[in-house]
């Protein structure tokens, strides 16, 4: 192949990039909302268990496929295929993940644009530009087009620079910034009235609820979505890892960072909800259900910041900058999937492939914006509730049933010579063949019902 490939220059580079992909709006926005809607601490407990028992094994399948193939998702899977049928199956799974990533980015960019626009509002208010502040938080086509375009431009800028100078460099910068902002906001919120009640709801589980079918399936779906499974992202990131790295350890570290930041996000959002409630903002309906739902960060939290006076402008700015950074660390991984396919399969120069792929996805975003009342939910549902579970399940099937066991073991042993006698090897192959596909199928069937 005539196109040279990039590679992460260090283990920490991959961990920051993979964790950045996993840690996005799904963690900092979706996880707390799911927690508040599904029994608080009981959901947290189930999520943590399932993230390590089911999402981690599936995550390992994807990064191992990528590291073995040293190529984009389609080529990596086809390298381990032994028949025409398997090669065609590999194309469907790999290209399906690429399409899924592009669809997710098309609506994700709109949501990220909202985060950026809400970050502009406190700046405008501080400068006395009330009309600008009102416009940037209004649900207008112009606002959506502008901020979605800005966000996509930032994403394209990073991916055009390649693996080491783009993805790795910016992940190393953005991830520490995001974690620092998150911790500072948690410390501040904990000093406010009502935070203790929210902390109790978040950390004191009702054990009787942990086996509820809806809670179990919601927690499993959140675990798979937050780790970017089923989008080809982790296959391509895995292909940029050195053959000398211990993949079992790296996978565990990324999973730990992902669930830790989701947990920290809950420490911020759930107490913030109860602080807002203490200030007179209605959070829950009479039946105990969450009123705001997915719109939580655009309704409840701005009300909380408004009640803080001038200080609330700075807290609101910090919060929405945090959300924008989280979105950007994920969006760069979603764009890399289709770009790597064009660069390697069709030998298109990286900057050209990135620019035109970004323009194409932005065009889909514009179609959604001009039909936002029904298309936003439609595309989000199509990609995350249908596309991701199916592709993630097929990746598990591929690693468990098509990839030859000896070849798989040899790949794991690169960087981990003791793999064959490890607890991981005794459990993981069976998990990936049977448990993960069945569990993901359960999530998918649940979404249909």
Write the layout of secondary structure elements.
Layout: H1 11-22, H2 25-37, H3 41-69, H4 73-79, H5 84-126, H6 130-136, H7 141-160, H8 163-189, H9 195-203, H10 213-226, H11 233-238, H12 247-278, H13 296-306, H14 310-345, H15 350-370, H16 372-402, H17 405-413, H18 423-448
Helix pairs in contact: 1-8, 1-12, 1-14, 2-10, 2-12, 3-4, 3-10, 3-12, 3-16, 3-18, 4-5, 5-6, 5-7, 5-14, 5-15, 5-16, 7-8, 7-14, 7-15, 8-12, 8-14, 9-12, 10-18, 12-13, 13-14, 14-15, 15-16, 16-18
Subcellular location: Membrane
InterPro entries: Na/ntran_symport, SNS_sf, YocR/YhdH-like
Membrane topology: Multi-pass membrane protein
Strand percentage, roughly? under 5%
Summed over residues and divided by their number, the pLDDT gives a mean of: 85
Based on the structure given, which CATH architecture is correct? Answer: Orthogonal Bundle
- Helix share bin: over 70%
CATH overall fold name: Hydantoin permease
Walk me through this protein's architecture.
There is one protein chain. The protein is mainly α and 449 residues long. It has a single domain (11-448), classed as Hydantoin permease, CATH 1.10.4160. 79% of the residues lie in helices and 0% in strands. It contains 18 helices and no strands. The chain has helices spanning 11-22, 25-37, 41-69, 73-79, 84-126, 130-136, 141-160, 163-189, 195-203, 213-226, 233-238, 247-278, 296-306, 310-345, 350-370, 372-402, 405-413, 423-448. The radius of gyration is 21 Å and the shape is globular. The chain starts with 10 loop residues before the first helix and ends with a helix. The model has no long low-confidence stretch (mean pLDDT 85). Pfam families: SNF (PF00209).
């Amino acid at each position: 192949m005539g196109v040279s490939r990039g590679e992460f220059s260090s283990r920490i580079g991959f961990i920051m990039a993979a964790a950045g992909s996993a840690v996005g709006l799904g963690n900092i926005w979706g996880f707390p909302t799911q927690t508040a809607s599904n029994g608080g601490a009981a959901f947290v407990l189930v999520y943590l268990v399932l993230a390590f028992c089911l999402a981690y094994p599936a995550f390992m399948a994807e990064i191992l496929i990528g590291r073995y193939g040293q190529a984009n998702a389609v080529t990596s899977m086809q390298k381990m295929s032994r028949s025409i049928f398997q090669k065609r199956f590999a194309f469907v799974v790999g290209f399906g993940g690429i399409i899924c990533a592009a669809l997710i980015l098309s609506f994700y960019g709109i949501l990220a644009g909202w985060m950026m626009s809400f970050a502009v509002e406190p700046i405008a208010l501080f400068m006395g530009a009330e009309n600008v502040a009102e416009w940037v938080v209004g649900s207008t086509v112009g606002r959506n087009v502008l901020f979605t375009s800005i966000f996509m431009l930032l994403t394209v800028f990073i991916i055009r620079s390649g693996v080491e100078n783009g993805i790795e460099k910016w992940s190393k910068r953005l991830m520490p910034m995001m974690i620092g902002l998150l911790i500072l906001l948690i410390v501040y919120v904990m000093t406010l009235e009502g935070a203790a009640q929210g902390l109790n709801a978040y950390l004191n589980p009702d054990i009787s609820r942990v086996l509820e079918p809806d809670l179990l399936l919601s927690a499993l779906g959140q675990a798979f979505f937050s780790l970017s499974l089923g989008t080809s992202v982790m296959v391509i990131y895995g292909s940029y890892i050195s053959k000398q790295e211990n993949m079992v350890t790296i996978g565990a570290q990324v999973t730990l960072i992902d669930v830790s930041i989701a947990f920290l996000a809950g420490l911020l959002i759930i107490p913030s909800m109860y602080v807002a409630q203490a200030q007179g903002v209605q959070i829950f309906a009479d039946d105990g259900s969450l009123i705001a739902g997915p719109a939580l960060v655009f309704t409840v939290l701005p009300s909380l910041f408004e009640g803080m006076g001038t200080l609330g402008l700075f807290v609101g700015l910090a919060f929405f900058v945090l959300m924008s950074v989280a979105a950007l660390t994920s969006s760069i991984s979603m764009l890399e999937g289709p770009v790597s396919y064009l660069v390697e399969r069709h030998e298109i120069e990286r900057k050209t492939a990135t620019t035109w792929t970004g323009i194409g996805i932005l065009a889909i975003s514009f179609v959604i914006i001009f039909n936002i009342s029904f298309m936003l939910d439609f595309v989000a549902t199509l990609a995350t509730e249908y596309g991701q579970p199916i592709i993630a399940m097929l990746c598990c099937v591929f690693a468990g049933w098509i990839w030859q066991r000896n070849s798989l073991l040899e790949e794991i042993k690169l960087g981990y010579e003791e793999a064959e006698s490890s607890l991981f090897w005794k459990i993981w192959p069976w998990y990936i063949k049977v448990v993960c596909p069945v569990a993901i199928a359960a999530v998918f069937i649940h979404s249909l019902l």
